[in-house]
Amino acid sequence: MECHLDGTVGKIGNLNGRTGAVGSLGNGAGTYGDMREMTDHPSRYVVTNELHARPFADLTAPEHASHFAMLMRPDEARRERDHLEALCKRYNVAPPQPDATHFTADFGAFRLKWERHTEFTTYTFFRRGQIADLFGDTAAAVVPKDWLDALPGQRMVASHLALLGGDDATAASDSLTRYFVMESFCRGSMLGGEAIVSTDFRIHADGFTRTLVQDVGMTSRESGRLIQRLLEIETYWTMAMLALPLAREVSPGVGKIGEALVDLTARMNTLESIEDERDLLAQLTSVSAEIEKSIAATSYRFGAARAYLALVEERIAEVREKSDGQYSTLSAFIDRRLAPAMRTCESVATRQLSLSARATRAANLLRTRVDIKVEGQNRDLLASMDRRARLQLRLQRIVEGLSVAAITYYVVSLIGYSLDAAVSAGAVLDTDLLRGLSIPVAAVLIWLGSRQIRKQLEKESE
Question: Coil, strand, or helix at residue 103?
Answer without folding.
Answer: strand
